[in-house]
Write a structure and sequence with these properties.
The chain is mainly α. It has five helices and no strands. Helix 1 runs antiparallel to helix 2, helix 2 packs antiparallel against helix 3 and helix 3 packs antiparallel against helix 5. It is elongated and about 45 Å long.
Length: 121
């Protein structure tokens, strides 16, 4: 739970800071892409070491982790676009609304795919 709170806070803080600094020069979706790249390394380490305590070589779980994150990123970006464009919400409020569904999605993907226990022969 603490790892998820840390990752969520880190990602939202990064989005907020970059949005406030760059929104006049970079579109909010571009800022979301930057935040995704910044947050991935930190989140992988936290998930691998603290949440799922994976013992397999990090390379294979890193690939699966990034595929899961890509799926969650596409969900979040599409949701952000829809809430801002169609729902006429501010990007900061829209991003905040997406936090809970994104956390649920990523936890499920990581539990079932990214850091799944290897099948025993």
């Amino acid at each position: 739970m603490l790892a998820g709170a840390y990752n969520t806070a880190f990602g939202y803080l990064a989005f907020t800071v970059l949005f406030l600094l760059l929104h006049t020069r970079i579109h909010y979706l571009g800022i979301a892409v930057l935040c995704q790249a910044v947050s991935l390394t930190s989140a992988f380490i936290v998930h691998r070491r603290l949440v799922f305590v994976s013992r397999e070589p990090w390379q294979s779980s890193f690939i699966r982790f990034n595929l899961s994150q890509l799926a969650a990123f596409l969900f979040g970006t599409a949701g952000l676009y829809a809430l801002v464009r169609l729902g006429r919400l501010s990007p900061l409020f829209a991003q905040a609304l997406l936090i809970v569904p994104a956390v649920l999605l990523t936890y499920t993907l990581h539990r079932c795919f990214s850091f799944r226990s290897p099948l025993k022969s």
